Amino acid sequence: MFVSKIELQNFRNYGSLIEEPCSGVNIFYGNNGQGKTNILESVFFCAIGRSFRYSKDADLVKNGEDNFRIALSVADDITNDISITYKSGGSQSPAEKSARVNGLYLRRLGHLMGNLLSVIFSPEDLEIVNDGPSVRRKLLDIVISQIYPSHYFDLQQYNKILAQKNMILRDFNVNDQGSSDLLDVYNEQLAAAGGRISARRYLFSRELEIYAAEKNKEISSGELLTFQYYSNFFTVPEPEKTESTQANVMKIFENYEEYSSKIQAEFLEILQSRKNREIERARSVYGPQNDDLIIMLNGMDLRRFGSQGQKRTAVLSIKLAEMFLLYRHTGRKPVLLLDDVFSELDELRCSLLIRSIAGFQTFITTANLSELPESIRRESKIFFVKSGTVKLI
Ligand SMILES: Nc1ncnc2c1ncn2[C@@H]1O[C@H](COP(=O)(O)OP(=O)(O)OP(=O)(O)O)[C@@H](O)[C@H]1O
Ligand SMILES: [Mg+2]
């Protein structure tokens, strides 16, 4: 798939923009702070319905305006028009965000998922190794939701019920049978949605491990990248002894139903048997909100013991794995957004990345055209970005 047209209105530092990228490599270059990343952000926004930076929707509205609109044409087997409109709230009215696909209003934003597949690579990806568990859960959730939109809806439902349950736990009154019964109902709902969430995350992490380990081995000449899934409510299976290969990676999800019902049952059992502990602590203790993916290199925790270079290699391998899995699962090639990544890479990693993106539509931002290999520049559409304007050169 590829984005054949981008239209922005009042998005970040763009008043109005219409560009037609090519189906291969598109390079956006210009000085710092001119609006290069903003373009990638607008494309990714149409894939997942929010910013990949930690920005609030309101911050994306151009200063002095009260709404923005992003519209993309996405060429696949057929062309789909995706548009998102955001209108700031006032003192009386809440903010409004709405999405349309081919003109049809989406009742829920989650229905956007899967219309445009995209992966973003950025220097901040090092957070995947260095930061807390929520970054890794987010990585898994974004890619899984693009493949299985029901994951997105499960997360929404889970988080809503979890918030309600936490409210009950906060002011729990032991003499109130109604609250106790309500907790039981919430626990059943949480076990169902939460079991599905963790089953998908766990199975996907195993697929990711196979691909990422292979890439990592290639770049590092032999270092072993592995993942250890962490959960505080289900028994994570022992890694299999037989070596997994890319050939059998797609079989992993065939076990989804089996894992999902096993994890749901285990979760419900824990929530019921530890109900009193959660009441004592006045908050939820168990569940996928605590899941983590521990990244290991040669059997040691990469976050604690890895060098900068080893971490960069692992992160690049994980992102490449993410992109291949999106493709393998859906049969559609995701659009790749490479935000300022070439300056961070040495020659070996650079050439691996270039080999890997062949055949995928790619958007590259850079402040320095000369850091991109000549082979890429020759075949690209090149845009010059200057304070919210874009010129094809
Ligand atoms: N809501 C907004 N309204 C107007 N301008 C904005 C808004 N949000 C960000 N900007 C402007 O957008 C610019 C940053 O855009 P962007 O992050 O795309 O830069 P960049 O070209 O990628 O720069 P760098 O090379 O430093 O990464 C800044 O000048 C910032 O002031
Ligand atoms: Mg930038």
Outline of this structure?
With 393 residues, the protein is an alpha/beta fold.
Question: Care to describe what's here?
Answer:
This protein is 43% helix and 22% strand. The two termini are 24 Å apart. The mean pLDDT is 94. The chain has helices at residues 36-48, 57-60, 127-130, 133-147, 149-170, 177-220, 256-273, 275-281, 302-305, 308-330, 347-357, 374-378, and strands at 2-11, 14-19, 25-29, 67-75, 79-87, 96-101, 104-105, 118-121, 225-230, 292-297, 300-301, 335-339, 362-366, 381-386, 389-392. The strands form 3 sheets. The protein has a 6-stranded antiparallel beta sheet with strand order 2-1-4-5-6-7. It has a 6-stranded mixed beta sheet with strand order 8-12-13-3-14-15, with helices on both faces. By secondary structure, it is of the alpha/beta class. It binds adenosine-5'-triphosphate and magnesium ion. Adenosine-5'-triphosphate binds at residues 12-13, 30, 32-38, 59-63, 340, 365, 367, 385.
Structural class: alpha/beta
Sheet-strand content, in percent, reads: 15-25%
Number of DSSP strand runs: 15
Number of helices: 12
Order of helices and strands: EEEHHEEEEEHHHHEHHEEHHEHEHEE
Name of the top-level CATH class of the largest domain: Mainly Alpha
Name the CATH homologous superfamily of the largest domain: RecF/RecN/SMC, N-terminal domain
Question: How much helical structure, as a percent, in the residues?
Answer: 40-55%
